[in-house]
Amino acid sequence: MLENIRYFILRALRNMRQWPFLCSAAILTMAVALATVATFFLVVINVEQLAQRWTEEIQVIAYLRKPVPQRDLAGIIETLKNYPEIAEVHYVSQQDAMARFRTRLADDASLLDSMDADVLPASFELGIRPSFRNQEGIDRIIERLENTLELDDLRYGQKWLERFNSFVNMLRFVGLVLGSFLLLAALFIVSNTIKLTLYARRDELEIMALVGATMRFIKVPFLLEGAIQGFLGGLISLLFLMLSFNLLISRSLTSFWLTPGDFQLLFLTLNQQLGLVFSGVVLGVLGSLSSLRRFVRI
Amino acid sequence: MIQLYNVTKKYSSDSVAVKDLTLQIDKGDFVYITGASGAGKTTFLRMLYAAEKPTRGQILVDRKNITRIRGNQIPYLRRKIGVVFQDFKLLQSRTVYENVAFALEAQGKKRYEVSKKVYQALKEVGLEHRLQRKPLELSGGEQQRIAIARALVVDPLILLADEPSGNLDLGVTLEIMELFKRANARGTTVLLATHDHSLNQRFPRRIITLDKGKLVGDQRPLPG
Ligand SMILES: Nc1ncnc2c1ncn2[C@@H]1O[C@H](COP(=O)(O)OP(=O)(O)OP(=O)(O)O)[C@@H](O)[C@H]1O
Ligand SMILES: [Mg+2]
Q: Rounded CA gap, A205 and B223, in Å?
């Protein structure tokens, strides 16, 4: 048994040495396919992360027709806080609004001197619980607010949210379709590359069958070869991704992403990295399996 | 060792390669298979190692009926049979040693066993000093001796040779015949397909003659 394993590995390695061009073609094909799929995966998870950050900043601002009388304020805040969708409630009185406006205008604040303190409307700024940071959640909040308060106007970046949601959904969908398509294409190319190496070695296969090698004995080295090639392909794609990712970061291209300051681009987790290499192995084995089935007959 | 009962092989409905062949070959026999080109010699040998299936009839090898042999049993049949071809069928990219070792490795033999047997088999054919050469660096006769070493290294019950000296000159042919005779003397049943009638004159043995797939002659040398 051990003897066989040793023999299989030696044969697989020798085969690869013997046909370096075909072998590297198979490895590179898999590396390219895997790297493309993984790149797409990275784009999707980073955009999702970005989306996550952006939606964290989503809040509903409810402008009131009339400011809330001081004695009712605590009660209303309590009611609002009890709604399951709402995480935080912050009341901005007319005076607060004016004060903010003043700070924003800075040097030009004196322009406001002639104005009444109650020009600006009072408002509630509502933080939303994460699971309701979507269109439905916001619709529910609006409904509740309309029942509770006398509203003048509502702001929550609705158009933007809708568009962004559908964009992320589309990205996921395209990623899924493109990813499966690419993997299929890789499988096809790998299977054909291995078919080519099998064709180049048909004499050897014929003689093996002639001297009484079993199917298993003939096939295992090729499956192993596919696995090794897939492993190397996966490794190369991983190295390539790491290098280009680090390059991206070191060139501080991240600043082009209009992102919150603490935003960090995500790379593959250790498990995902292992998964990438393992996918290479699976791809290689499947590729050689499918071509062996058609090629090796006794 | 080998029995055929009414064996017919058709490649297509109008081409009959072997027709209603019935014969028996005993253990330890040395048999020439002769006949004109297209007589069915190669087809006959190919059916014995299950490279072709007979269209009709039954074939027994080593008391086993191989007529309807299953694919996964074919390797075990072939381990009892060594085959030598006119074109040697050596792997050009492998050394002499590796070519012969191939047959043992394919059967999953242990490494120390392999190297010992390969050396012995190559010594037997007189090429133990060419271990690390590639086949193309050797003469045709030497290449055929390597192919014979590969066939014999597994100690087969049966040795099939399809015009093994078809491309070789007389001197080499005689050397090769000597190897076959020695294998036969050790108990291997030998079947040798050939056009060359002079071989039988030098080494009289049983001759089976085919013509258009039919058995037309089966002569044994007169004793003494
Ligand atoms: N694979 C094949 N497909 C179709 N017909 C075949 C095939 N192999 C052989 N034949 C036909 O079967 C007949 C017997 O061929 P076979 O090769 O057995 O003859 P042979 O006696 O070995 O001839 P030779 O002395 O030329 O080698 C021939 O008519 C040949 O054309
Ligand atoms: Mg022939």
A: 44
